[in-house]
Amino acid sequence: MTETAKNETSLSVIENMNLNQVQATMGKISQFQGVVQNALKKDHDYGAIPGCGSKPTLLKPGAEKILMLMGVSSQYELIERVQDYDKGFFAYTVKCILSKNGTTITEGMGHCNTMEKKYASERQDAYTLANTCLKMAKKRAQVDATLTIASLSEIFTQ
Q1: Residue 142 and residue 140: Cα distance in Å, rounded?
Q2: How many CB atoms lie within 10 A of CB 107?
Q3: Statement: residue 86 has pLDDT above 60
Q4: Measured between alpha carbons, how far is residue 96 from residues 12, 14, 22, 39, 90 in Å?
Q5: Are 12 and 42 in contact (CB under 8 A)?
Q6: Which residues contact 74 (CB under 8 A, 6 or more apart)?
Q7: Residues 48-69, mean pLDDT to the nearest whole number
Q8: How far apart are CA 134 and CA 143, in angstroms?
Q9: pLDDT category of residue 94 using cuts at 50, 70 and 90
Q10: Is the pLDDT of residue 9 over 90?
């Protein structure tokens, strides 16, 4: 496809949009963001994580509440699993699939491994941390999907 054809294709998508509908949708997104900010509790549903900047981080309880508000269900798929029992290294990549009435809306990805600074510095047994890393990868995938489906990336970080 030529560059001109790509531009025409992109432009035709914009040309066919109902701008009144787009404006109404943007207004609903803004209202929803306000509802979410008022409903979630600081230091429980979201909070500051040292070293992660000034934007608050959406936490698992907050993500769960948002998904309940939206009436979506989540499924998880293990994308990658590294389990090196000889070296004590474990890594997991998880995909969170959000759907409503059987239709996939969006997906989020999360990864965690036992070499991450916070786990290596805890000096815990890597074999004990394997399950912790699997759960953290799942949580990260859920938060990623939640930020996307609810258009909350300008308010929260992961």
Answers
A1: 5
A2: 17
A3: yes
A4: 32, 30, 27, 24, 20
A5: no
A6: 67, 96, 97, 98, 99, 142, 145
A7: 90
A8: 15
A9: very high
A10: no
Paired residues of 57 in beta bridges:
47, 157
Q: Rounded mean pLDDT of 32-56?
A: 88
Enter the tokens of residue 69. Answer: 């508000």
Question: Which residue's entry shows tokens 């965690």?
Answer: 112
Provide mean pLDDT across the span 11-27: 84
DSSP the chain: --HHHHHHHHHHHHHT--HHHHHHHHHHHHHHHHHHHHHSPBTTTEE--TTS-SSPEEPHHHHHHHHHHHT-EEEEEEEEEEEETTTTEEEEEEEEEEEETTEEEEEEEEEEETTSHHHHTTT--HHHHHHHHHHHHHHHHHHHHHHHHTT-TTT-B-
Structure confidence at residue 7 as a pLDDT band (50, 70, 90): low
Tokens 């990658």, located at residue: 80
* Amino acid type, 71: G
* CB neighbour class for 151 (10 Å; exposed up to 12, middle 13-18, buried from 19): middle
